[in-house]
Amino acid sequence: MNSRSRWPVVVVGLLVGASAFPFYWAIVSSFTPEARLFQAPSLVPTNLVLDHYRALFTERNFWVPIRNSLVVAGATTAFCVTIGALCAYALARLQFRGKSMLLGFILAVSMFPQISVVPPLYLVLRSLHLINTYPGLVLPYLTFAMPLTVWLLVGFFRQLPPELEEAAMVDGASRLRAFREIIVPLALPGLATTAILTFVYSWNEFLFALSFTLGPERQTVPVAIALFRGQYQVPWGQILAAALVATAPVALLVLAFQRRIVQGLTAGAVKG
Amino acid sequence: MASVRLENVGKVYPNGHVAARGLDLVVGDGEFMVLVGPSGCGKSTALRMIAGLETPTSGRILIGDADVTSLPPQERDIAMVFQSYALYPHMTVRQNLAFGLRMRGAPPEAIDARLAEAARVLALEEVLDRKPAQLSGGQRQRVALGRAIVREPKVFLFDEPLSNLDAKLRVETRAELARLHRRLGATVVYVTHDQEEAMTLGGRVAVMRDGILQQVAPPMEVYRRPANRFVAGFVGSPGMNFLSGPVPPSLARGALPGGAILGIRPHDIAIVAPGSADLEAWVDVVEPRGSELLVYLRLGDEHTGEEIRVVAPPEPAIQPERRVGLAFDRARLHWFEKESGRRMEDVVP
């Protein structure tokens, strides 16, 4: 290897190291007994135990926040992608007045700092008796997830040649049928990318989940982890174990759909 | 099968662009009608209005006896072949061909039978289970044709279906299309910008320009008696010569109101010895085209004279930079009004 090609390897190695190290450290720590965490930290794990993970599911009942997160993120994603796809298709294809203004407006909605919409949303949700319920989280999540979905999908739909739907309609399909049978299958990489981004976003969301839930029975994973810390001690081992458990579904999703995501994010970049 | 009738159809886009104006056109049952014109002349818009993909802003469209002006495409029972073919990329050839029948709720046995027939006619049997991406250009084109044929629609619409093929394949497919039309006896509206395609395929040719129909007639009539200067110049290759300068006395038809332009096709001029001819010219460029020569000449002065093109038999005497005489075929002269461009015999009796 000559010196010219060695530099990129070094730089990339440093970058990967820097971003992977905290994750590695979290893994090691989550298997280290609480007492040793502060007395004798070591890069190489010794004396591994499963105590923190066991405590997570026996003492803390961590299944509940996982279930809550799955329900909320799953429902948000399902609503977002179905409604968002129809909305984006209309914006990508139909001609109507004020279309570009509408697109701008949708984007503007997502520009508000999240904290600024917490109080009004709280009042709305309270009057609808939706505080501390699943819909009480899914609905507010749609406010930030939908604009993202619509914007991403409008881009994907615009890349598909309109003649395909025209051909389908001449062939006897209604516009909705053409959408379902021709556009959706072709936009699948885009839909998958959008779905995963929405899911990850909702899975990680903290502020709304903290503000609109009252007790552990509806708290999501990030809120539950944040509330682990007691008055006198912070159970770092359990927090790290929980963080790893919370990362797992997201990491698995992304790994499973990795190719689709790359396809989706770069679709149309190169004509092919 | 059915006829197609456009009655005073116009299309103005919201931005004010006029794509079609006062189109009156009747395509008879089983007729092969070609809409031809330069790009942007409104021919594709006209076709898309017949298909239902665009809505006219004025006038009516009838298929058979039914007014379809406001019907969506799926209720018009038409089939269309797109320039880009628009094959469904995620479906196999079989699924592509069956799609239209499936949408109309045809029973599976009927679909299979029609599909087999179309695949046989278009030689697609080998590739039925491939995806469009795995096909050659010619095969894709045939799948697009097949998708239209299996439907057995009232009207076939073609939007420049041959323009993505290479020259050789285009000529072959053109013949195939003509054969297919004869077999099916179908009503066809075919859009092209290629006048040669229009002439060879069309039962009648409709020449359009700037959204307005210029002439609708059988190909030979459009060629022999073009309705105006635009049609005269558009149809035929190489294009017609127009002489706007003083016309030689031997050709003039007496005093013409408003002045006149003389048009004559390159095939209707003979190169002869100077002296006895209608006009004298200077040979500029000679292009051998195998069976004939395409000769570019200049009338009168060799630098500033009007250019004129002549198709001549390959004679060694025709060499650049020589002076020759030109004899015009008296029966093949076309006179056009200077202002309006209209054909003269339609103007002066």
Overall 3D form of chain B: elongated
Reported by name, the CATH topology of chain A is MetI-like fold
CATH class call of chain A = Mainly Alpha
Classify the beta-strand content of chain A into a percent band.
Answer: under 5%
- The number of helical segments of chain A is 14
Number of self-contained structural domains of chain A: 1
Could you give the distance between the termini of chain B?
41 Å
Strand order of the largest sheet of chain B: 6-7-8-3-9-10
What is the CATH architecture annotation of the largest domain in chain B?
A: 3-Layer(aba) Sandwich
Biggest interface goes to: A-B, 19 and 24 residues
Largest sheet of chain B: 6 strands, mixed
Given as residue ranges, the uncertain stretches of chain B (5+ residues, pLDDT < 50) are: none
Rg of chain A, alpha carbons:
23 Å
How does this structure look, described?
The complex is a heterodimer of chains A (272) and B (349). Chain A is built from 14 helices and no strands. Chain A is mainly alpha-helical and 272 residues long. Chain A has a single domain, classed as MetI-like (MetI-like fold), CATH 1.10.3720.10. Chain A is globular, with a radius of gyration of 23 Å. The relative contact order of chain A is 0.13. With 349 residues, chain B is α+β, with helices and mostly antiparallel strands. Chain B has 2 domains: 231 residues, P-loop containing nucleotide triphosphate hydrolases (Rossmann fold, 3-Layer(aba) Sandwich); 106 residues, OB fold (Dihydrolipoamide Acetyltransferase, E2P). Chain B contains 8 helices and 18 strands. In chain B, the strands form 4 sheets. A 6-stranded mixed beta sheet of chain B has the order 6-7-8-3-9-10, with helices on both faces. Chain B is elongated, with a radius of gyration of 24 Å. The two termini of chain B are 41 Å apart.
